TrEMBL record:
Keywords: Signal. InterPro entries: VWF_type-D (IPR001846). The keyword ATP-binding does not apply. This is VWFD domain-containing protein. Residues 1-17 form the signal peptide. PROSITE patterns: VWFD. It comes from Stegastes partitus (bicolor damselfish). Residues 23-194 form the VWFD domain.
Length: 199
């Protein structure tokens, strides 16, 4: 194959925006958190945590999660540009009002995405996708569609930067009197981190 047509195809694809990088942070009902840098760790706690928090082009984003005793996420709060969206008990609430899907708002769109539900921001290069099951949410991931030149905090860390897991946990917890952070239960798990990345 002549390299010039191939280069033209890549240049056209880049110009049309079809090729771009996504940075993904995932968390699962087991308590596993896979931050932007890809090295998974385990958090066994019913405390609320900041999953990710950042400001981009003067738009604030804050995603917090809370697990139940069974490990499933029982409450997720997504705040983008001061608009609060809460995922709880299988419902989606925007500014304290239950909404049906698809839901379109000036700043965000919430819609079914196969078996999942997705919130896509129109202000930030960000989407949050989750899977509801009886009792909570068993999978949630945050995708950032470009590298952000900003300070990110939370369990997801900052993409491209490796962080100390204990430091991420201690700096991300939103303490309450009634919550506990427990030591992880070590057990043989047949699912490898590579399988988690493929999901």
């Amino acid at each position: 194959m002549n390299p010039q047509p191939w280069m033209l195809l890549v240049c056209c694809s880049l110009a049309s925006g079809t090729i771009f990088l996504k940075y993904t942070c995932r968390t699962f009902g087991s308590g596993v958190v896979q931050p932007f840098n890809g090295s998974a760790f385990y958090v066994h706690s019913n405390c609320p945590f900041v999953l990710t928090r950042f400001t981009h082009n003067r738009v604030e984003c804050d995603v917090t999660v809370r697990r139940g005793d069974n490990g499933l996420l029982v409450r997720v709060e997504i705040i983008i540009n001061k608009v609060r969206t809460v995922l709880q008990n299988g419902s989606v609430l925007v500014e304290k009002k239950s909404v049906s899907l698809p839901y379109d708002h000036t700043y965000q769109h919430i819609f079914q995405f196969g078996l999942y539900t997705r919130l896509k921001s129109s202000l930030l290069p960000l989407s949050v996708t989750w899977h509801d099951v009886p009792g909570g949410i068993d999978a949630l991931w945050v995708e950032v569609e470009q590298e952000l030149d900003t300070d990110m905090t939370g369990l997801c860390g900052k993409h491209g930067v490796s962080g100390d897991k204990q430091q991420l946990i201690s700096e991300s917890v939103l303490s309450e009197d009634t919550c506990q952070i427990r030591d992880p239960v070590f057990a043989v798990n047949p699912v490898s981190c590579n399988e988690l990345k493929a999901q």
